[in-house]
Amino acid sequence: MEESPVLRNRTSGYTCVGTSKRDQTDRQREDASRTSFTDSSMDAMGLEPSNSDINGPRDAGQDSGVEATSSDSSSAESTGVKPSRKRRVVRDRLMRERSLSECRKRSTKQKHRERSNSEPSVPALGGGLADFLEGSKRVVAGAEDFMMNVLQASWRIVHHHKLPEWLQDNEYLVFGHRLPLNSFRACFKSVFRIHTETGNIWTHLLGMLAFICIATYTLSSRYIDWMWQDITVHSVFFGGAIICLTFSWLFHTVFCHSESVNKLFSKLDYCGIALLTVGSFVPWLYYGFYRYPVAHIVYLVSIIGLGTGCIVVSLFDKFAAPEYRPVRAGLFIALGLTGVIPGFHFVVIEGFQCAVYEFGFLHLILMAILYIGGALMYAFRVPESIYPGRFDIWFQSHQIFHICVILAALVHFRGIQIISHARLTSVRCSLHA
Length: 433
Ligand SMILES: [Zn+2]
What we know:
Layout: E1 7-8, E2 15-16, H1 26-44, H2 67-78, H3 85-118, H4 129-154, E3 157-159, E4 175-178, H5 184-189, H6 198-220, H7 228-254, H8 259-288, H9 293-314, H10 325-350, H11 352-359, H12 361-379, H13 397-425
Antiparallel strand pairs: 1-2, 3-4
The structure holds zinc ion (ZN).
């Protein structure tokens, strides 16, 4: 807020410098004006200032406001009688009080003027209080109607039983489903809306961004002794994770576009799972079995071949049909077990202690728990199957599964860091020391 202009007292000629800041105390204002007034009034009367006033301002009294006091002074001089010290003190006090009062009035008026200029007008209260409250209610109701119209204009969210058959996936999510949108633009706009897929989209969208950052940082600050094989196996892992998460959030974004788009992106989603699985175990097998060339090659070829087979099969239309659900599940479980079997193999040939330090075995077990736990919650639709309708938007089983996938991938990355460090620095566990 700006400072108020300088107020000049026309009667006494002293300047009252007030500010419109509300935290400035009246005492400060009074002290300032008292000092100014004393000097100016004494100047105006032609009297000598006291010792305490010698250093005060002496030109303020030259204003037009000195007329009244000048006349008093001149009349006293004309009569040849100098006013006594006591009379001067009394007169000064009266003039000071009068001037201070006028200064306050002017300052208050100035504050009101500034406030009325800077603040919006407020309806009068008192008798108009009821009208004011009624008007406020109408404004709020109008805003709510406007927001509802905007939401309704964007799309409708409906109950599960109103969905077409190809969109009826989870009957325990009662309300909040998107209808077929038939527009990619509308599908991507729905990323920023609240519905049953909002959590599924954002969990893997944010996961994808996180892995892009981790991959960029890791590959740009790699060890000096990294060779092209090290960069390749790390890139395979990061590529699999980023592609999987990307296909996943894209699938959840556009799967309500139309039936054909739904089928296409569900295939890509399956491919992403296969790529993440293969990408996770390639660096693990590469570093873990580097001293066992045969097992090294057999396991790497097996996981890559099985992963490629999963991707090819995922692209068949029949693979997505309900009657092939067991085949689908069995194929992906086999793909996952291809990574677990080498872990136990390593324990058998090297021992548990070496498996922990050189093979990141504990990370492997934690990763398996996360994957299996998330998959079981997804398969049994927990918790929405226990409380139908309560987890329509947040904390539904598919979101939990998504979070488990991200956590498992992060655990896997940490395990890869451990075993790659052991391999590159030739650190052996105590059994081989
Ligand atoms: Zn998903």
